[in-house]
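Milestone M4 deliverable, item 7.
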Amino acid sequence: MHNECSIVCRVVNKRRIKIFIGVLCIPIFLAVDNLQGQTTPKYSNEFLSIGVGARALAMSNAMTSAVDDVTAIYWNPAALTDIEFKYQFAAQHAAYFAGIANYDYLGVAMAVDPDSHIGLSVIRLGIDDIPDTRLLFDSNGRINYDNINFFTASDVAFIFSYARGVSLISGDSFAKGGGLTFGLNVKLVRRKVGDFAHAWGFGLDLSTKYRFNEWDFGLMIRDVTTTFNSWTVESEELRQVFNQTNNEIPNNSLELTLPKMIAGVSRPFRINDNVGLLASADLVFTFDGRRNVLVKSSLASVEPQIGFEMDYQKKYYLRAGIGNFQRVKEFQALDALNEETYWTFQPNLGVGIVLDDIVIDYALTDIGNVAESPYSHVFSIKYSLERLPGIYAKDKRRTKKKNRDEEN
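Output delivered:
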């Protein structure tokens, strides 16, 4: 009986939260600055900053130089050439805020030839079944719950990727062991808030990855041409209620997302024949204004991300990372004028296991202490088909290094 009551209470609490979101959603989604003119909001298209893959989330997103699988479509498309299979697929589902927000990812990558790969991924962040409370009160001023309809607020991105190796630095063709690759992402963004507003967006990412001996270096420039979202607002859907509440009806607008640069370095270490360690670090540079990060200036804000991965026989993995450094105010009720501040950071942990052609990863991530249960459990799965010969991917780099060592 106690368990049944607990379940009922959780369901009731979820519904209360959704009704609260429904009451607020119209002014939040439609009356903000980015729907009232051409602006460059600091956190535009932030659903594309969450990250994909439990491995990456466990390592605090320090993946720009370390990624070597299909999730490179998101982290660094140039690294697609490190995939050692002709076909690779990945999927992820995560639920945030007690299941109210759902985050889903699907990706597929394919080798075209020894020098190049292509990829496609879909990312969706959505809040479903939001109550539309505009007509909650009937003509007599009484509450009528039968007038409540439900809608969805969702953000979806389709990412098309291409990566190719070049010989500008190594002097050899990529298929013979060159370590430099370039990648390109073409992004198509679809954002929708019920029947009230929707947007189409377009943007480009550029990246590169280079291996020197055992070191990997990566550079990712997101939204390199400035990604735009063109919003269309259904004014007639909102006119009656907005006029009654003396709110300004938002107009069609163009929302811009400024570029972001991520530089990373990583290196693997073999402790013995069975145990290995990967250390990775990224620096995230944003140029849309001063953010609450470790280093901030009028030119750029800089945020570090550090991750580690230990493997046993390249089959069992243990991961950890820290990131999201922020200075937080410690409010004191008795002395509001002398609030102190302190630094916080976000720790993450995770594990992974390789089962033949299937890889299962798990991450325990802190989403910022914004919920009663601040830690989120994220699972992702990866499936590979048709291992490629040694002229492909990382094997060719290992082969080249082995040949050099033998020559020496």
